[in-house]
Write a structure and sequence with these properties.
Layout: E1 6-11, H1 18-30, E2 36-42, H2 43-49, H3 53-66, E3 74-80, E4 94-98, H4 109-119, E5 124-126, E6 135-137, H5 139-167, E7 173-177, H6 187-199, E8 206-208, H7 225-246, E9 253-256, H8 266-276, E10 280-283, H9 287-299, H10 301-316, H11 318-322, H12 339-342, H13 347-354, H14 365-372, H15 375-381, H16 383-391, H17 393-412
Parallel strand pairs: 1-2, 1-10, 2-3, 3-4, 4-7, 7-8, 8-9, 9-10
Antiparallel strand pairs: 5-6
Helix pairs in contact: 1-3, 1-17, 4-5, 5-6, 6-7, 7-8, 9-10, 9-13, 9-17, 15-16
């Protein structure tokens, strides 16, 4: 299996919006843009809503069938490691191997020595084509990179070989992610990480490094956009050289994995992938669930009442809901509207607060982040929630499609002037 140039990860907490999501890809296709849909759902999300991986496959299958989608598509086992990968084997054909927890764990001395010796050829003044300033790579830097990343790549190899044994060689897409860590990886570190990946014979088709800045759930990128642009451009050039140097798959591309709505850096990403004629894999996280809540609010009546109820319970359970996501949210509790205030809102007012539109004076990123992590409460409502999704399928679906196409695709792929 081979991942095409442009691909986009779409999460769906409750597996009800497959068709609405896919409609955005159909619209992009009408503009001549070929984007591969990748439905992704992590083990944590399955556990929270009491679903199983095969349900994501069924929902995707149905969407593809109902919309007569004939181009490639995948189902991603998101953030897998040896503790949970087995449950995804039969339903997934894309595996995001998450090694963030293994960074800084030490490989054996023999393995570290082999890593350093293998990469000593790059020691000294080391240039990467397209990057003006050469790197000065010392043996100490090689040792440091090995101590930081080699164990993690060894673990990725162990997970990859398990999947390969179950599914067969090249019968799935492999992504390596190391983005959910506190410190970004430098371009030089990325080069050495790719060297280690190649040495383990992992045919990675996407790599998700950690960039500088904050990639929070539900809201826009927070950081120095110029610095991000420098890092992103250098990483593109690093991958280009690593593919040639180490024999990695020719379609290996960057994955911008962290966060949900990276709108402010989309123009940078789009400009640079067009400049170098490179591919990209973008993941969203939780935005479909947020559009469901927006759609329920807009539907009014009992649907709005349910949205208000979920928000009210989220306020009451703030610590419980936010704790697992503490590293990827920044919520000022003082800027959250009270449940009494929200209960007085009409559907439009609720939607304006929740929808990611910084130009709207009612938009509240703190409320949006809290609702983002509150999908557990919706799951607890059972049929009361999923029934409302079915009842108001049309208005919710329009929010989902519009979100993916208008806010993501248009800004990444420069579709704003194409109607």
């Amino acid at each position: 299996m081979q991942l095409k140039k442009y691909s986009f990860g779409i999460g769906d907490r409750f597996a009800r919006q497959g068709e609405a999501q896919l409609k955005a890809f159909v619209e992009a296709e009408k503009k001549g843009l070929d984007i591969t849909p990748v439905w992704n759902k992590s083990g944590r999300e399955h556990s929270t809503v009491n679903s199983e991986p095969h349900e994501t496959r069924i929902a995707a299958d149905n969407a593809v069938k109902n919309l007569n989608w004939s181009k490639p598509w995948f189902v991603d086992a998101d953030h897998v490691n040896m503790s949970n990968v087995a449950g995804f084997i039969h339903s997934s054909d894309f595996f995001t191997i998450d090694v963030a927890d293994y960074i800084d764990k030490k490989a054996s001395k023999k393995e570290l020595d082999e890593f350093v010796d293998r990469n000593s050829v790059f020691a000294g003044e080391f240039s990467i084509t397209g990057i003006d300033k050469p790197f000065n790579l010392t043996r100490d830097m090689l040792v440091s990179a090995g101590e930081k990343f080699l164990f993690a790549i060894k673990e990725a190899a162990r997970i990859y070989r398990y999947i390969e044994k179950k599914k067969g060689t090249l019968n799935f897409i492999t992504e390596i992610s190391m983005d959910e860590v506190t410190r970004s990886q430098s371009p030089l570190e990325l080069f050495l990480i790719l060297s280690a990946i190649a040495a383990e014979n992992i045919p990675a088709q996407t790599i998700a490094p950690k960039f500088s800045g904050r990639f929070n759930k539900g809201v826009d990128y927070q950081g120095d956009i110029k610095q991000f642009a420098i890092e992103f451009e250098q990483d593109l050039l690093v991958i280009d050289m690593a593919v040639k140097e180490f024999g990695l798959p020719e379609n290996l591309k960057l994955s911008v994995h962290s966060g949900s709505d990276k709108f402010s850096i989309y123009p940078v990403i789009g400009d640079l992938i067009r400049k170098y004629d490179k591919g990209i894999h973008i993941k969203t996280a939780g935005t479909t669930w947020l559009e469901e809540m927006t759609g329920l609010a807009m539907a009014g009546g009992d649907a709005l009442a349910l949205a208000v109820k979920i928000y009210s319970q989220a306020l009451a359970r703030f610590d419980e809901l936010c704790s697992p996501y503490a590293a990827v949210i920044d919520i000022d509790k003082n800027r959250l509207p009270s449940d009494a205030e929200v209960s007085e809102w009409d559907g439009r007012r609720f939607a304006d607060a929740l929808r990611h539109n910084p130009g709207n004076p009612h938009y509240n990123p703190h409320m949006r982040q809290l609702v983002h992590v509150a999908y557990k409460i919706a799951a607890e409502q059972g049929e009361a929630y999923t029934g409302m999704l079915e009842k108001h399928r049309e208005i919710i679906g329009s929010q989902v499609t519009e979100n993916i196409y208008d806010r993501h695709f248009k800004n990444i792929f420069n579709l704003n002037n194409q109607g």
